């Protein structure tokens, strides 16, 4: 099986932004051990255990002048090679040897991202994405939440394999 992408960086925080890089992550049904959320009623929980964002999105935002880097957008996994335009709720991925995640929904950006530019949320998310329209040019740019079907350890560089394509 050929990997669809890889993990570039693993990120956690004591709550809020940015999340900072760690060298290894233990993933549980509630996300990465040691990661916290300022607003647990909105972020986290079993259906939003992890947030994945493409490094290609981060690079595009940097090219547009936004002062972001891996972890800035609140993602737990900064990925490379996974095309956000093809990500759909219901897709399952194996990350490394043991971890299996299922995408649950696109992430709706919060006001905390305004620190990088008041227009950044609109740059990565629109009403079409909110309505579930994958034809939106902004589809997947704000990241995808995932639930954890099987936990384990992840290291940077871990391959990511698409297991099930959503219909």
Mean pLDDT: 96
Terminal CA distance: 20 Å
Discrete helix count: 3
| CATH superfamily label | PK beta-barrel domain-like
Portion in beta strands: 25-35%
Q: What is the ordering of alpha helices and beta strands? A: EEEEEHEEEHHEEE
Main structural class: mainly beta
Number of strands: 11
Rg calculated over all Cα atoms? 14 Å
> How many strands, what sense, and barrel or not for the largest sheet?
7 strands, mixed, barrel
CATH class: Mainly Beta
Strand numbers in spatial order across the main sheet: 1-6-5-9-8-7-11
Shape: globular
Question: Can you tell me the number of structural domains?
Answer: 1
Q: Helicity range of the residues?
A: 10-25%
CATH fold naming: M1 Pyruvate Kinase, Domain 3
CATH architecture heading: Beta Barrel
Can you tell me the residue ranges where pLDDT is under 50 for at least 5 consecutive residues? none
